[in-house]
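Aim 2, interim progress. The first record below pairs a target sequence with its structure tokens.
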Amino acid sequence: MLIYRLSWLWRSACICTFYLALSENLYDTYTARSLATRPWEAGLGSAIAYEGHFPRMNGASHMSPGDSAASEPAPTPINQRIESIDVLRGLVLLGILFMNIPLFGLPHQAAKHPNLSGGIEGLDWWAWFLSGVLWDGKMRALFSMLFGAGAVLLTRRAESAGPEGRARTADIYYRRMLWLMLFGIIDGYVLGWFGDILYWYGVTGLILYPLRRLKPRAIIIAASVILLSGIGMHALGHEKAVRKQREIWSIQAAFAAGHQLRDKDYEKLIAHGERRKEQQALAEKIKKEAEARKAGYFSAIFETASVCTKWNSAPLYMDSDVIPMMLLGIAFANAGVITGRRSTRFYLITALVCLPLGWMIAGRDMLAWSNSGFDIDMVGSYADGAAWSYPTQRLLLALAYLSIVMLIARAGILRFFMQAIAAAGRMPLTNYLAQSVICLFIFTGAGFAMLGEFSRWQLVVLALGIWLAQVIFSTLWLKWFAYGPMEWIWRWLAYRQRPQWRLHDTA
């Protein structure tokens, strides 16, 4: 066990050293002239740090690629932002926190076995059900789309400078992705958040840059092929698991009715009983995990390190999760969907079609899981079944939520709410990492060690309180400062030049 712990620490140190060395080498390619003429300085290069290169949809005038203002390293003026994109990122942060809070506040196995930790009756059942229908996976899909769109939004104006501008844009883009991977490692192995997505966003972001100029149709076809190939890998496994579970239920019903069973049926019942014992052993494993995470900071970090490593190595993110959604984000940015250039009718029809359809599919999946009694056999069939229905519902609902935000922005309603959410969306990296820090101190031995002390519905209330605090903090912070703290640090690390700090300072 000690060797294992030392091995992942050594590997993390080597990876960090590699990123720092590579970043240093990339920095050496810069010249004094290039530092003074960065037309892309106004943006942060991804959905996590995109600072709004285009006008808002409220009628503000467009800045052309040749505007001189674009050549100065300064934050994008408020009247040139796409506020709806800030709102989308803010809502995504809320949804991600609602989705992640059970994993922060309960043993991680509670995600697959909700009946073993956190409660699953009454309000707890509704908290579990609504989270699965409304948020789970949908916010990550939308976040991935926004991240993919960032590859387009960062480079669109910068590349107007010609071949030299394109080369410099590629340089800064890849530097940012490398630093994002490092932030992800810190989030996972220092802050203890084993479900970190920053590392994988940095990894997958490395392959997006060459694809940013493809036509939307070609990118959509490529994303569909990747998505369908991942779904196909699980389709047969799902059908087999469902048939197996139904057969067990049928044998159990026949046995209860006093019917004579075949020897083969008895063997299946015995095997099923062994799996029941595994479930009991799982409950003991959950108890030990909770004790380790509450014992102290280092105990919590070592306990979650293996889960983090497994998560970062999961092929899920290579088939039906991150890459297809990022590709769709590039396509939607090029087609004007994410930048708000489509018609009101387009967004209205998209919302009316995708929202009820996505909710129906998601609700059916959650009810099927619940009606199984969270049987240990059903866990496998649900996971495989979700491999074909889960990507469908999360894509539908991501598009629906995107369209609803665009419609609200165009209608000009809920202005106070939209501006408050947009403030959090302008500091996504800061707020995402802050959620890890807050939950580290609330739930683990690094602070109050309250892991397992909250039921599911109480965790939802706690998440709402955390998010409300982040919205207030973001609103107040951006009244005086140009960027969020982590966004500012990311800029400094990427450019090796101190960015503007206070809102009214000169850059």
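The second target in this work package is listed in the same format:
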Amino acid sequence: MSTDSPHETIERLLTSDEAEVLLNVHHGFLAKDRVGTARIPFVKIGRSVKYKPSDLRRFIERSTRASTSDIRE
């Protein structure tokens, strides 16, 4: 039996531009991340690259530091 409900909502996917505005980072930050370490998961639909707001929130949480000497992997 499937747990998917026909009334279940899917979170709105953000474009790279929208995600960069939300993260307050320079244009191209996410493109470089995708090519390099891909720290932020993305969804590829055809040629379009989209981001889940929940993944952006997780990235912000993982990137939050108490001080500049706080080192995490």
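The radius of gyration is 15 Å. This observation will shape the mutagenesis plan for the next reporting period.
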